[in-house]
Design goal:
Structural class: mainly beta
Number of helices: 0
CATH architecture: Sandwich
Shape: globular
CATH class: Mainly Beta
Oligomer: single chain
Helix content: under 10%
Radius of gyration: 17 Å
Number of domains: 1
Strand order of the largest sheet: 13-1-20-15-16-17
CATH topology: Immunoglobulin-like
Distance between the termini: 11 Å
Largest sheet: 6 strands, mixed
Number of strands: 20
């Protein structure tokens, strides 16, 4: 079956804080039969005690599942009992899905951050990032040779400058999307294109402009960069 796939770019503006860190999530792809179970693992950015899990089903935006902070569950959505998680002393986290159902086929995302409930300093540098993970049900159309790519993967630049992010998919999907995840940990849709026509624009500043030269490509250009632009930018197709 076709699932919405998502890639990411971490945009950092120069300021105090670590650079070059990233979340590590394994495995990157999974194909399982119904009734089986899976374990998804996430290693956060060094020093980040908060880890959150999201699920993005086909045709929908990412939905929050669980959040852990220093080994304690701090947030939980109304999710099935078949979904469970945990966080270890080194802040790594696991998401477990048992008795898989067809509706579980989705992109799963892990994000790490500082304690955003009481931030201790400016958030100019990236404070979180995420990776996409696809879990699909085994079927006649399952494939691993299709992909969505996004570049650059990491970007550190000066305020006031301009950046361009590029996304390409070879899945034959008609719709492409740009999402943004800032220090609040919330994923928000910015732009949605269907057959190169703008469908959704969530009132983002005019400094942000998407371009779609064809059905397989979608770029995002950001002018006059400001501190609040530091975030994770995600491209998806469906």
């Amino acid at each position: 079956m076709d699932c919405k796939l998502l890639c990411w770019t971490a945009l950092c503006l120069l300021g105090p804080g670590p650079e070059g860190s990233r979340v590590i999530q394994t495995p990157r792809h999974l194909i399982k039969a119904q009734g089986q179970q899976v374990k998804l693992s996430c290693s956060p950015i060094s020093g980040h005690p908060s880890v959150s899990w999201y699920q993005q089903a086909r045709g929908q935006g990412p939905q929050f599942l669980l959040e852990y902070f220093e080994g304690t569950q701090r947030g939980k959505a109304n999710i099935p009992d078949r979904f469970s998680g945990q966080q270890f002393s080194d802040y790594r986290s696991e998401l477990n899905l048992s008795h898989l159902e067809q509706g579980d086929s989705a992109v799963f995302l892990c994000a790490s951050s500082l304690d955003t409930h009481s931030p201790s300093g400016p958030l100019f540098p990236c404070v979180q990032t995420c990776l996409a993970q696809e879990v699909t049900g085994r079927g006649p159309h399952s494939a691993l040779d299709s992909a969505i790519s996004q570049n650059p993967r990491h970007l550190v630049t000066q305020m006031g400058g301009r950046v361009s992010l590029y996304c390409e998919q070879n899945l034959g999907h008609n719709a492409m999307f740009w999402y943004r995840q800032d220090s609040t940990q919330q994923l928000r849709v910015m732009f949605s294109y269907n057959n190169r026509k703008l469908i959704v624009n969530e009132s983002v500043p005019g400094r942000f402009s998407p371009k779609s030269p064809d059905q397989a490509h979608l770029s995002l250009h950001i002018d006059a960069l400001q501190p609040g632009d530091a975030a994770v930018y995600l491209c998806a197709s469906s």
